[in-house]
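Troubleshooting entry. Yesterday's outputs looked truncated, so today I'm pasting the complete records for two proteins to confirm everything comes through intact. If either block looks cut off, that's the bug. Protein one:
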Amino acid sequence: MVNREVEPKHRTLLVGLAHPDDETGMAGTILAQVARGDRVVIVWLTRGEQTEAFGPIPIEEVARRREEQGHRAGEILGADTRFLDFADTAVVHDRESVLRVARVICEYQPDGLLTWGDAWIRGMRHPDHQAAGKIFRDAITLARIAKVVAPLPPHRKPMPVFVLRDEHSQLPVVGVDVTPHREKIAELAASYLQGIGFGDPAWLEGRLRQIGERWGFRYAEEFEAWESLPGGYASLLPAPPLPGVPHPDRIDKPRH
């Protein structure tokens, strides 16, 4: 396993998702980042209000319960949590959506993004997942443009992207050792299993073990690495940059 630690500076990882419970597939990675002393902020675009897990009750009550679940997840993971007000099953990638998330990025000034990527397998290819990933990824660019995000300060420092990996992906991969965090991962899954019936313990155990075997860890989670070196790590951040990246970062100088 490669140690990503290069300096003691604390970092902020932004986790951009569509619905509460999406974070189940990256819970160990969130916990690993928090254990390093870093800040993790989970932002859900929707409240997941279209679930039928609670039976025939008003949709606003469903949304309230789902928000409670998300905030409880944050408590378990040691992460900050925030909900936006996009409509469940109706997330659309357009300029206004990207701009809203760009302003969120400017607020938090994160050092990395973990979100949804392109996917082909059922569940992962949910339209909200696909749209949310593209919104968060595109927002990185708009967040750099001062005239677009004013009066907020632009966010121009490097912000490597990591996305949930679909089985068909051929992109570079990072594996995160989540073995030390297995108990908390189970606690989060149990919370969602009780609340909405998602998070089967046998499925979770098999998934973490299978990925772990690929990396030589007991338990692991893995993601595509879009702008950093692949490999096995203890946390996503700090991330070693790809050598020879052609786009220079200008953090302190104004753009013309």
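Protein two, checking that the full record survives here as well:
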Amino acid sequence: MARTSVAELVESFERRGQECAYVFRRGYRSVRWSYGEVASTARRFARELERRGVQHGERVMLWGENCAEWVAAFYGCALRGAVAVPMDRASAPEFAAKVAQQVNAKLAVCSRELAGRLPGVAVMVLEDLAEELAAKDADAEGQNAPAAGEGDHPSAGVAGDTGARATQANTSRDDILEIIFTSGTTADPKGVVITHGNVLANLEPLEREIAKYLKYEKYVHPLRFLDLLPLSHVFGQFLGLYVPQAMGATVVFHESLNPTEVMETIKRERVSVCIAVPRMLESLKQKVERDLEQRAELEYFRREFATSDGTHFVRRWWKFRKIHNEFGWKFWAFISGGAALDEETERFWGRLAFAVIQGYGLTETTSLISVNHPFKKEKRSIGKVLPGREMKLAEDGEILVRGENIASRYWQGSELKEVAGEEGWFHTGDLGELDARGNLYFKGRKKSVIVLPSGMNVYPADLEAALRHQPGVKDCAVVAIPVGGNAEPCAVLLMEDGSAEAAVRKANESLAEYQQIRRWLTWPEEDFPRTPTQKPKTALIEQWAREHDHGGVATGGIGELIARMTSRAAAVAGNDARLEEDLNLSSIDRVELMSALEDRYQVDLSEAKFTDAATVADLQRMVHEAGASEGSHRYPRWAQQWPMAWIRPAVYTAVTWPATMLMAKPKVIGRENLRDVKGPVLVACNHVTYIDIGFVMAALPWRLRWKLAPAMQGEMLRLMRDPPKGTPWWRARLDQLDYWLITALFNVFPLPQRSGFLKAFAFAGESADRGYSVVVFPEGRRTENGKLSAFQAGIGMLTNRLNLPVVPMRIDGLWEAAQKKQLLVAPNRITVRVGKPVKYAPGENPNSIAKDLERRVREMSSNDEVRSTNDE
């Protein structure tokens, strides 16, 4: 029986119970939600909408990053009959506020940092949604319902969910499910009105096709999909909310578009299929080629690549098995959508024996019109038309479609306007070609919208309006510069006076991140060529721009990014601005800036080179060169796996603990502060000698000391692992043995002082996900005089993104013993103080956290009269 509402999919979530539905990162931690948890939270959200008086057909805005809470809120709207209004995370706050006002949003569910950007609209914080809903249900029902936290969410079937079913609206296929706004900053934003029937008409034929292969899927269950598309995008929704769920798959969300991180996520999460825009596939291709070049294997690879055309899939897979190993052995396919994939990139991945599946569709067609069959695809084709819809080509080659999947209306202002034209045919504005077998080929765009390689739509009128508001701009035209089958906007300015560069910078302040003008040219003559009605002849201007554009990013783009992140106006002064002297960038600013640059430009940057960069111009050059080495620090995941995870506690019990007690039985003060702490935690301790970790372990309760991941100076570990040239062979072998022993027996990981710390922080998050408490020494180096040094800001950033309780700890007496070179110290002469765990609010300033932790450790003076508890 055909479904009548998307809300009915919630029941299929409940049937799958505790199967993993979503995995996503929050800071440096991984959060996992089951299908039952999503369903339970969706029903709770529907009940919350009822409590707030949100009626059938009223609008609820969803504005934030991809996460399970976003999915639950979306399905909660469907259950209640409310209309979801997804907003892209990158949308300018002014545009989001304009949309909220236009649709008269009754509620907004936003990321924490966006919650204050919608004046006059009631807001719920996305990250706190599950916990807040569980608490409200517990209050309403007079019982203690479990609250959701890291890895602990409300489970399906909890008491009270039956009551939530009463809130489910009687919704038909013609009712509005969501409104997706595709425009940017126009005065009257235009939203595509999508009904329940539009979505179901697209989903049902895909489910029928998937059903044919479910008998094979059980051998590789569960499939895992990495969804890199925003859920505010209709294609991202189909591959994040509907299609994988038809086979009980797990969807992995990943916010960063850094290619190294994407590859690591694919391998770590054992992903089967990656869903991305063409720009991401191009970035991954460049990453693979850069890695080959670093290993001096690129020329060999190119020869093998050239000779592999036409060979059997299995032979190609074996020939390029090293590249497959970098992605993990479960990974086999890319699904590309949102924009056109260029032929070279498609050929690259196909030749390496990866499947590349393309779909074609628009927001107005509720995503898909056609899709490639993963096992029966034609080269360069965007697939065959899906059942349930009709397609034909107009005389000029424009693709026309009609069917139940076509949205019937636009929401613009207070009016609903028709989408389809004569006889129900929707004019896509795209040009296509059909072969004799019904395969569709994309041939270009007819309409003025510029589709970026990232899949985002940019409307020239929006950019032109922003530019015309700038002083000195007489007129302008924004034209498309081709990029791999898609395009990027290029502004051609006609100036009266002033700097064109300054005008572009100022205009960018009012544009969303994806709309930023990064290419611009100044028209060399007094006026544009014009039509009899005085409109600029766009075709001639575009032709001139393509001849004179050299593919560079507009000067000052990086400076603008620095200004946005740090609120330092000097950043836009020019490429000569110095990062430390002029902009006063701290080490934490540099860490966050590097991550932002990698995300914006989708490149890998060398952390060593980034640390050495002195000016904005240096950063500009690094971005264009796309970085090089990613550093040589290695993160020992093997030390946390069997058999080391079993051997280490035995060695500690038999050797390390007795040796510590024999050498200097420490007096432990404050262990009772950890009586109710189960872990994992983040331990922040002063740094005295290289044996500090033994005293930290002795001070912790037995249940915590078994699973510790201590950070050690990365540069020292690297020298032990790879002794420099000229080291005597016996000394080198001894250093390498020391490295292996300290890594295996103490589970240390490198925390570099200058480069590589982003990866170190990420590894700390992985360790915490496995249940390991992380130990760091925030001073960054051992004390030189026995006194506490200032804590580095990195501890604040790590605390923020690990979301763990922080246990301050202090070792006293050890420095004095080390100065006297005592091998044996009288019992209780060395004191280890354990402070009360502290939990910092999400988003708190990293520098403030570092200073507060330093204060706490500094105040643990030897004069404290605290009860000594050597036993738990």
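Both blocks look complete. Sanity check on protein two: Residues 44 and 705 are 39 Å apart (CA to CA).
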